[in-house]
Write a structure and sequence with these properties.
There is one protein chain. The protein is mainly α and 297 residues long. The chain has a single domain, classed as Farnesyl Diphosphate Synthase, CATH 1.10.600.10. The chain is 73% helix and 0% strand. It contains 14 helices and no strands. Helix 9 (170-194) runs antiparallel to helix 11 and helix 9 packs parallel to helix 12. The radius of gyration is 20 Å and the shape is globular. It starts with 11 loop residues before the first helix and ends in a 5-residue tail after the last helix.
Length: 297
């Protein structure tokens, strides 16, 4: 863009939307090395939209699980539950109007309207976020509902972006939806295992039904690892239906989490409840290079 030509400099709503997109991009690269790197493999057609989705869910998660709690400790008037409700209401309003004074919500609304992301998959996400404010122990039913809302629908949002301009048969759509949900589920379960120490000790929370510090054993860990592998196997079956750059990026993300799951598998249960497992930056770069060269998950 030639910024010396004032007739080509964006103004008004166009400029505001560009600023919103930049704000969303900053969120993903500030909070997630893994997803940030994988997102860079996306073509320009998809990258901004996925950044917009990530920014919305990241900020919501901060309200219930991160910075808002610290703010409340400093100022008692901070009310995460009220703030989450206001954030949710503003999201729906922006999805309808195509505009918000909140830059992150504005960016997400642009993506939702482009890809046809409706309240039917956004509402379950906020339901799960609200669970984090009220529930510390899950049974199987609440666990499955939480994983669907907190992770599987995020996969469905990204899938909506990837499919927006494509043509798919009913069978292909079903396979893609099943794969997106399975990948979101696998990501969330890996993160639960990575964050066992923080969830148990800092938040007093146990996501996996029947799992606690006292009961967490190597056999329990292996059962969870196998469950994640099963989700990843389902996800891999739909990768070939995704558009080129989306396939590379999703493959990279899947390979990264497969690598994390292998590290979890090798780590004794006693260590998992004391430290967070991560993949080195060098290994992440190696995974991304493999994805760029067409490696399959």
């Amino acid at each position: 863009m030639d910024f010396n030509d004032t007739t080509k400099i964006p103004t008004g709503l166009t400029l505001y939307s560009m600023a919103a997109q930049k704000a969303a991009r900053e969120v993903i690269y500030s909070y997630s090395t893994s997803f940030g790197l994988a997102t860079r493999l996306l073509g320009k057609k998809y990258q901004g939209h996925v950044e917009n989705i990530y920014a919305l869910v990241r900020v919501a998660d901060e309200i219930v699980d991160g910075s808002a709690a610290e703010a409340k400790a400093l100022v008692s008037a901070v009310d995460p539950e009220k703030m989450l409700s206001e954030f949710e209401d503003e999201t729906y309003r922006a999805m309808e109007l195509g505009y918000s004074t909140n830059l992150v919500i504005h960016a997400f609304a642009l993506t939702a309207r482009y890809a046809g992301i409706g309240k039917d998959i956004v509402e379950p996400f906020f339901y799960s976020m609200r669970q984090d404010l009220t529930e510390t122990i899950h049974d199987q039913a609440s666990f499955e509902k939480y994983v669907y809302g907190s992770a599987e629908v995020v996969g469905l949002m990204c899938l909506a972006v990837f499919m927006a301009d494509g043509s798919y048969t009913a069978e292909e759509k079903e396979k893609l939806v099943r794969g997106a949900r399975a990948l979101g589920s696998a990501f969330q379960k890996v993160n639960f295992l990575r964050d066992l120490a923080a969830d148990f000790k800092r938040l007093g929370r146990s996501y996996f039904p029947g799992v606690s510090v006292e009961s967490f054993s190597d056999q329990t860990k292996m059962n969870l690892v196998k469950d994640i592998d099963a989700d990843l196997a389902i996800s891999s079956q739909s990768l070939g239906l995704l558009p080129g750059s989306a396939r590379r990026a999703v493959t990279a993300a899947q390979l990264l989490f497969q690598s994390l799951n292998r590290q979890i598998e090798k780590t004794p249960a006693s260590e998992l409840i004391d430290k967070r497992i991560s993949v080195s930056t060098l290994k992440k770069v190696f995974v991304l290079l493999r994805s760029m060269m067409g490696a399959k998950a």
